[in-house]
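Below is a filled-in request sheet from our internal design queue. Each sheet records the structural input a requester submitted and the sequence that came back. We keep these sheets so that new team members can see what a complete request looks like end to end.

REQUESTER: design group, bay 2
PRIORITY: normal
MODE: inverse folding
CHAIN LENGTH: 333
BACKBONE (tokenized):
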């Protein structure tokens, strides 16, 4: 596999330049950082800043916009953004009513966002952090705080941003973020490793003809490796694992929001077929689906695979996820 660029740093810069030219949303770059703000959300509300490594496009820089994040910051490929870059975005969004930082639960992100949050607090700003931990394969339910964040980031960002736009208090915006985080579960599967931009080589070993359930966005080990299985066999197994995880926390899955996320190389044809199998499973289990999306939202360069994200909804969360939004990553009319 060869990309149309061989240098990771220049690829990220060029991608940011392309994003800034996207005509749907007017974003502004923050200094020389890999960071953007959507400046038209106004000052009199809690601000939402999100971030993580590059290589997951259109997340993270692509999810700033109306109804979504006020600011977004990225690191180099699969690397956390620096504390300085994060702090620059906090300053740029004019967080007079407070700022909530949303990011996946990875050690580098936890460290760097934590440093930036401490700096902002030292300068008199009200700051909270929501560490997304939706990946059920990465730790047992008893160690929920150790789980990784994957495509569930998007539902958490969507709900928390809608809450902020409604003018909710800082405390309530944080509460909505934590609630959505707790009620969101994801599980991924890969059939081919991502390819390193600089070397053109696979980033981990996955033998031809095998799949790995629970594979992380950076090639982290999953929970089960097996021979290839078609979607009509594989999807029900994954859904059983997701539903079982909800049941362990005694969360009633009375209504659901569903996201079928491609990891980079999975075709739209496949994603739509997978989406149909997910919907069939939920229909058979009498779980109403309030919202369902399929596409490339949180990728891993060119990894072949997909993830399924389920958010349990109630009367508070459903309208927040249904609220209109627009960004390069995710749009809801």
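RETURNED SEQUENCE:
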């Amino acid at each position: 596999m060869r990309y149309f660029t061989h240098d990771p740093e220049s690829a990220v810069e060029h991608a940011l330049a392309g994003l800034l030219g996207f005509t749907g949303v007017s974003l502004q770059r923050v200094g020389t950082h890999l960071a953007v703000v959507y400046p038209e959300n106004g000052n009199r509300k809690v601000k939402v800043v999100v971030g993580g490594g590059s290589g997951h496009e259109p997340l993270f820089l692509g999810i700033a916009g109306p109804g979504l994040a006020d600011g977004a910051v990225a690191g180099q490929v699969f690397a956390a953004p620096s504390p300085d870059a994060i702090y620059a975005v906090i300053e740029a969004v004019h967080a007079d009513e407070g700022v909530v930082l949303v990011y996946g639960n990875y050690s580098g992100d936890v460290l760097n966002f934590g440093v930036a949050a401490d700096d902002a607090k030292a300068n008199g700003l009200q700051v909270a952090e929501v560490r997304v931990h939706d990946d059920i394969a990465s730790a047992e339910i008893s160690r929920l705080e150790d789980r990784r964040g994957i495509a569930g980031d998007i539902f958490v960002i969507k709900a928390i941003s809608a809450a902020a736009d409604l003018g909710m208090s800082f405390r309530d915006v944080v509460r909505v973020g934590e609630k959505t985080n707790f009620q969101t579960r994801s599980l991924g599967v890969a059939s081919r490793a991502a390819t390193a931009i600089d070397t053109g080589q696979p980033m981990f070993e996955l033998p031809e003809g095998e799949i790995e359930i629970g594979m992380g966005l950076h090639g982290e080990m999953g929970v089960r490796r097996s021979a290839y299985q078609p979607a009509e066999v594989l999807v029900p197994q994954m859904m059983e694992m997701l539903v079982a995880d909800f049941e362990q926390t005694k969360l009633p899955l009375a209504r659901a929001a569903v996201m079928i996320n491609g990891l980079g190389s999975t075709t739209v044809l496949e994603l739509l077929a997978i989406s149909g199998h997910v919907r069939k499973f939920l229909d058979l289990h009498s779980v109403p689906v309030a919202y369902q999306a399929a596409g490339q939202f949180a990728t891993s360069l060119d990894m072949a695979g997909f993830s399924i994200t389920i958010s349990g909804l109630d009367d508070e969360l459903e309208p927040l996820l249904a609220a209109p939004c627009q960004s390069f990553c995710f749009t809801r009319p």
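SHEET NOTES:
- The two ends are 36 Å apart (CA to CA).
- The longest helix spans residues 231-248.
FILED BY: M.R.
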